[in-house]
Design brief:
This protein is of the alpha+beta class. It has twelve helices and 19 strands. A hairpin with a 5-residue loop joins β7 and β8.
């Protein structure tokens, strides 16, 4: 009856396209060692992450660069346009202010009256202070808050500072019909000039300044800003175009400048770099958030895809590893996928089934071969035993005795130990064999062999030498000890009785024994024992004779 196949150990379900379920990684149960495909999963995820990151960085850089370029182009158009528009308005306003001052100067002597001068200032749309000075520059009358401000120019634009160092700009005009050198000065009103410097379209920090020819800020277009004392801007640099520069507070700014036609004044439009390019910074933040989201999303997708790809490979790798270690009872749970992984899984299972079937067949053949080898071994042992055993007496045979004697002679030649030999012969065996028949003779030989086997020592070697002769090798025994062993054997045989030929009649048997000791020659050893046996036969049989006389032992 054929043997049943071993039970097959199922590996975890593997994932594949269309498998419809997650797979457990085989490598979770491995004792030591990293997953064989762990590096593959890491590399795939890293490549996806790096590709996504580089793509996101490239797209982000292009977006930011494009936005930055667009804003610079826009500022390059907006700032000069703002300066030109404000310069045009300011120039007209200054012309109107000059006309107003000339009209006020026509009031003549009334200007010397501070109250009248104050009334004229109250109705002025351009000035915040009026000052009448004589030819030496001494104040004749004034109206408005101009403490510490002393104009020095009689005609044209002039600059000055109040008591706190805040710059002012104004206009001086000589008076007709009065003493030479007397003039009327008007200080421009900042509050009325600021609307001229306001421009729509600038950013949250965009502002236009009215500055002197050395860059001193005179008027700022924002109501919330008042020029700080001695605030100067890099006018020469700003006149080259829309440029970046460091403001008085070392904050990075961007701006440009343009002159006011017919004056020494200029207009500067500026904005903080952060506010000017705020859309760029906002875009950078948004792009960063979007890129981070894309990276996380693609990493998760890559992880899921990689898991779906790598886990089946891990299962296959683990199965191959177990097969390489001799575990053929491995089977991967197959999915419904028709892709390469599914095909590889099914092929793998077919391979393991064939390997397992072949192993079973080999094991059966091995079991049969082992049984046959055991039977052959037993037969060989029997044959070997038969080859060294006498079939009748069950003692060692003549050939084995010769081999054993050779080994013993080599041993005693090396160790100088004693070795003796007993040659035993059944007395009158031929006559008894002729009288009772060969069957009785064989029975007698077997009986004598049994008596001899019980009489010798455990260290002695007993063998049938041939016919009715037996031989005993006595290792580590001198001639006297061998005589003692021989006498014990002779007496045991003589005292015993044998029933032969199936009758109840007892038959007495005797043996003769010749004893010799090895003295260096194998041939002399045999001859001495044989001659001693003949002497025993000649001495009347049933006796022991030694090859030479032994002190303390009579010639037995």
């Amino acid at each position: 009856m054929p043997e049943a196949l071993p039970s097959r150990a199922h590996l975890p379900q593997i994932d594949g396209p269309g498998s419809g379920g997650p797979a457990a990684s085989l490598f979770d149960s491995r004792h030591g060692g990293a997953s064989a495909t762990g590096g593959l999963a890491t590399r795939i995820i890293f490549v996806v992450f790096l590709s996504t990151f580089l793509t996101a960085v490239l797209v982000s850089w292009i977006s930011v660069y494009s936005t930055h370029t667009f804003l610079r182009d826009k500022l390059s158009r907006t700032f000069p346009a703002a300066v030109a528009g404000a310069a045009d308005r300011t120039a007209r306003w200054l012309d109107d202010a000059g006309g107003e001052l000339a009209q006020l100067a026509s009031a003549g002597s009334r200007l010397e009256d501070t109250a009248a001068l104050t009334q004229l200032l109250r109705d002025s749309p351009h000035f915040e202070a009026l000052i009448l000075t004589d030819s030496d520059g001494r104040v004749i009358s004034l109206a408005g808050n101009v403490a510490g401000l002393v104009p020095t120019e009689a005609t044209g634009l002039w600059l000055g500072e109040d008591a706190e160092g805040i710059p002012h700009v104004g206009m001086g005009l000589g008076l007709d019909g009065r003493a030479a050198g007397s003039s009327l000065h008007g200080v421009y009103s900042r509050s009325r000039m600021r609307p001229l410097l306001g421009v729509a379209g600038l950013g949250r920090d965009g502002v236009i300044h009215l500055v002197s020819e050395d860059g001193q800020v005179l008027v700022t277009g924002r109501l919330t800003q008042t020029p700080a004392p001695h605030t100067r801007l890099p006018l020469e640099q700003l006149r080259t175009g829309v440029v970046s520069f460091s403001g008085p507070d070392d904050e990075r700014r961007i701006g440009t400048a343009g002159p006011i036609e017919g004056t020494k004044l200029s207009l500067v439009v500026e904005e903080t770099y952060e506010a000017a390019f705020e859309p760029v910074f906002d875009m950078v933040k948004r792009v960063f958030v979007i890129d981070l989201g894309i990276l996380i999303l693609f990493s998760l997708v890559a992880h899921r895809i990689t898991s779906a790809m790598v886990r089946p490979i891990e299962a296959l790798s683990e199965g191959a590893r177990r097969i390489s270690q001799g575990e053929l009872d491995v089977e991967l749970v197959e999915s419904d996928a028709r892709d390469e992984i599914g095909l590889l899984t099914r092929t793998f299972n077919d391979m393991t089934r064939k390997l397992l079937s072949h192993r079973v067949e080999i094991e059966r053949a091995n079991h049969k071969l082992v049984a046959q080898n055991a039977e052959l071994q037993r037969a060989n042992e029997v044959l070997e035993q038969l080859s060294i055993t006498d079939g009748l007496t069950r003692l060692h045979n003549h050939r084995f005795f010769q081999d054993h004697l050779t080994r013993e002679i080599k041993r005693v030649s090396r160790t100088s130990e004693n070795l003796s030999m007993l040659m035993c012969d059944i007395d009158d065996f031929k006559r008894l064999n002729d009288r009772l028949g060969h069957a009785a003779g064989d029975e007698l030989l077997a009986g004598i062999a049994g008596v001899l086997d019980e009489s010798v020592r455990e260290t002695d070697f007993l063998a049938r030498y041939g016919g009715e002769e037996f031989v005993v090798l006595c290792p580590d025994t001198d001639l006297a000890g061998a005589i003692h062993v021989a006498e014990k054997i002779r007496s045991s045989v003589a005292e015993g009785s044998f029933i032969l030929d199936g009758s109840s009649q007892l038959t007495k048997i005797t043996i003769s024994i010749g004893v010799a000791q090895f003295e260096g020659s194998r041939r002399s050893f045999f001859q001495a024992a044989d001659q001693a046996l003949y002497r025993a036969k000649g001495a009347g049989k049933n006796c022991v004779k030694a090859a030479r006389e032994v002190p303390g032992y009579p010639d037995v």
